[in-house]
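Wait, can you check?
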Amino acid sequence: TMLIRTLEISSKVMTMLIKVLEISKEVITKEGEQRNLQNSNANENGSERQSLLCHQHWDQSKL
């Protein structure tokens, strides 16, 4: 009976591990999507900031 009990416990542990892996996989893909969104936003902000700096420089040179 001890062997059967051990097998039952190990199978439960295995199913729990599989569930944990599935959940972490979902979390990783969601984080990846969010990171891609943040990167594209950062790129847009960077180009906006550069154009603002160019305008400021141009204004100072006119003075």
About this structure: The radius of gyration is 27 Å. The chain is about 95% helix and 0% strand. The helical segments are 2-62.
